[in-house]
Design goal:
30% strand; four-stranded antiparallel beta sheet; five-stranded mixed beta sheet; 185 residues; 15% helix; alpha/beta; Immunoglobulin-like
Length: 185
Amino acid sequence: MNQRAETRTDLREDTKMDPRGQTRMDRILSLALLISAVSCVHIDGGAVEASWVVRSDDGRAITDCGCSDPAIASVRIALLGNSGTVRGQEPCRDRKECEFACQRSGGATPFDIPPGSYMMSVMPLDAAGQDLFLPASGVSPVLAPAGILREVVRGQPTQLPAFQLVAKCAGSCAGANESKVCERQ
């Protein structure tokens, strides 16, 4: 069979109706539309993406967040509206969508942060969800650099530079000083 005849045969196969009255091409187009509809991201504002590293107060890397003292369970992206209609707003306060396991070393909010200017930072949390920046009796707080003033734009992610969280190395994770890593023995 020559190439032209094969093409006609292929076209006839694509236009044959199945018992439901659909052609092969109809099924392919329907599947493509379904996949594209499911993969859409709902956009009601902008998003903020942050990353972090944990270091000990003597400069060693802490690769296991449970080895920091106090142990960091999760990190929340903290946003404080700075001007205009968002002044004073905290769109990530008490929202699980803005909280990420410390071990992930990064995370991004949904695209629902109202556009505007925000002071942006990250907040380390313990297993109970308590802010580890605040000194507790007998516990040293986790330290971090000051927040960064950035603009959130609808439909766009706002990327922040990596934040360095500083904590003591837990006694159970002292590690050998030569390794420059605070890790479990």
